[in-house]
Structure formats: structure tokens, C-alpha cells
User: What shape does this take?
Amino acid sequence: MSHNPVARLAVYAGSFDPVTFGHLDLIERASALFSDVIVAIGVHPTRSPLFSADERKDLLLSATRHLFNVRVDSFDGLLIDFVNQKQARVIVRGLRAATDFEYELQIAHANADMRPEIDTIFLPTRTKHGFVSASLVREIASHGGDVSRYAPPEVSTALARKFSR
Assistant: This one.
């Protein structure tokens, strides 16, 4: 095992539109497993997220401010290229259900083919977060529902502002 400090750097990527308690649980668990974690916001030119990349970054910074070894960044293009550029050794992926596994495994195999020195680890979501997704949180909020049990307070407030317009 390498003693290079970046060998313990992990990247947890997603759209985080918006960040949920499920995301936050995975970030906290990754921060306990690795010396440093980059939460990487994927920016895709063909998608139209509810929150801009800057808004998502601000929400993530607020939600993770208690984690000294977590930083937030964004990327476009292939995640594996971003991870390589940052000299990370590990990609962290969350799994909510068995259906996530097939998709995530396919991506992990492709990433390993392109960069065999970078590993992917899967963390199952906690049972209480297993059904929560960012799209579910957006849907509930869009109808004026209370999302406070699914997302941090700053996210609930930001969603209320978005949908009150």
C-alpha cells in the first residue's frame, strides 16, 4: 500500500440536485473511511438541473461544513478523468437497491478498464434513506410538501424558494 497522502483521497460524485440526507450519510461515512473526500458535482450540458452548479455547491458546502476533511468541487466530462486529475485512488458510489448495482457495476468496470489503478467502492445506503432520491425530494417540494425529513434545512429552504416563484 502506498503511503502517498493522495492514496487515501476518495471522490464521491453525483448531481446532488439537491443534496439529500442519503447523500449526506454517504459523505459522512466516506469521510470516516478516507483521509480526504472530494464531493464532485457532475455538470452535464444536456441536463437542466433545478439548481445551478454554484447553488448545488453552496448547499453542499453548508451541509458538509462539519466535516473537516471534505471539500466540494465540480466537473464535466468523465468522472474517471476528474478522479485521475485529482490523483484520487477511490471512487465512492452509493447503492439504494439491487437495481442500482447493475448500473453502477457496469460503470465501475468501464472505469477500471480505463484506469485500473483507481478503485470503486460501493456503500449501501442506510435503510431509512433507501427510498430517498433527489428527484423524489424535488417532486414533493414542487407540490408544497415538507421535505425536512429527507434533506438538510438549507435545502428545504432553497426548494421552497425555487417553487414559490
The chain has a mean pLDDT of 93. The chain has one domain: 5-131. The radius of gyration is 16 Å.
